[in-house]
Amino acid sequence: MRATPAKAVTFRWRQGWARGLGFGLALVLTSVGTSQDKPPDSDGAKAQRLVRFLELPERRSEAWRGLLQLRTAAAPPLALALQDPRPELAVRAAWILGLLGPDAEMAVPALQRGKKAKAAEVALACDWALTRIAFRGTLLVDYSANSVVVLDGLGQQTREVEKLNGPWFAEPTTGTNLLVSEYTNNRVRELDAEGDEVWTFTELNNPYHAQRLPGGNTMIADAGNGRVVEVDRAGKVVWEVKDLKRPVAAERLPDGNTLVCEQEGGRVHEVDAAGRVVFEVTGLNRPQRAQRLPNGNTLIAVHVAGEVVEVDAAGKPVRDAWKIPEAQMAWRRGDGHVLVAATKYWAELDADGKELWRKDVRDGYAVAILRQ
After folding, report:
1. CA angle 101-178-188, nearest 5°?
2. Parent domain of 155
3. For 192, how many CA atoms within 13 A lie in the half-sphere containing its CB?
4. Where among 133, 156, 188 does a domain terminate?
5. Most buried of 40, 138, 313, 350 (most Cβ within 10 A)?
6. Which residues pair with 279 in a beta bridge?
7. Do 268 and 303 share a domain, yes or no?
8. Using the 8-state DSSP alphabet, how is residue 71 labeled?
9. Taking the CB of residue 157, how many other CB atoms lie within 10 A of it?
């Protein structure tokens, strides 16, 4: 496996980190919510500490996962971090706020101010996060019907994007725009509310999954070409991993690593910015989608085996697999519920696997579901 790394980002950690940062994150956080206000073991204090860890490459994974576990308590220090003069840190803060979804409601005013930031990547990241926080509906992707359906919080259809060609995944980008990967048409497109194309990338062969990154780039699992690519708004490839065995999903994590699902390779693995494997699970029967959980475990939908498995950092199962015939996707929400797409239906399961709601597909092919 060969990797072409993106330009490295260097983070400086200084002894006595509040010293000399001016209007930086350290000064802001040490001036608000000190130990006089909160006991050292409070969630607020933990969140402040984890936000500081975002500066340290070796603690970054621990930081973003811990912040997601703290949920609403993580939002205030992350909102303050948007003011940090280092764009890379402000972008990471916006990224995690977006992943928190509705739990980050209190950060909306700070994100709205961040949309006016001089650094373009910070402004884009804040806009991305605002869309994720505001999104309350459900996206259902039907491959055979060539459509993406949007449901509101009550389950009523509010929008349908038709005349697609083999869509496999969709997600909100900014405002009412949607990013859609079209497997059959060998392209990934961003569509506005009227369905008009505002961005496209076509140097692909059977793209399954695409992810819009907070800074504006797009991550794509280019299965037919055996690679995962990150492209900028101009369509330039800025990072890629090659020589993969039909990668069907790839997700950039807030620490900079990328989680890759190789269908024909029968494995899920995580690579760093240089393409080095730092985590791996093998022996899977055509895995279709993987998600890194805040607790450090990984949730995997295994299509041919018809199951959803959860493994720990060592790749060992932590519970009995859920039997989900023809599982295409499984995604755990912040409340512990799991969204499932399983060819003939979409469903939401509780933490014990009990079905809470289900929408069957008559003549279609349910491949993806997304809801905050």
Report:
1. 125
2. 137-370
3. 5
4. 133
5. 138
6. 270
7. yes
8. G
9. 12
How far apart (Å, rounded) are the C-alpha atoms in residues 86 and 75? Answer: 19
Q: How far is CA 255 from CA 64, 207, 270, 298, 367, in A?
A: 7, 24, 11, 15, 27
**End-to-end CA distance of the chain, in Å?**
34
Whether residue 11 is contained in a domain is answered as no
Q: Per-residue pLDDT for the chain (372 aa), expressed as one digit of tens each?
A: 445 444 333 333 333 333 334 334 443 444 444 445 555 579 999 999 999 999 999 999 999 999 999 999 999 999 999 999 999 999 999 999 999 999 999 999 999 999 999 999 999 999 999 999 999 889 999 999 999 999 988 889 999 999 999 999 999 998 899 999 999 999 999 999 999 999 999 999 999 999 999 999 999 999 999 999 999 999 999 999 999 999 999 999 999 999 999 999 999 999 999 999 999 999 999 999 999 999 999 999 999 999 999 999 999 999 999 999 999 999 999 899 999 999 999 999 999 999 999 999 988 899 999 986
Count of beta carbons in the 10 Å neighbourhood of residue 333: 12
CA atoms of 342 and 329, how far apart (whole Å): 7
The answer on 149 and 273 residing in a single domain is: yes
- The phi and psi torsions of 43 (rounded to 5 degrees) equal -60, -35
- Going by the DSSP 8-state scheme, the letter that residue 9 receives in this structure is -
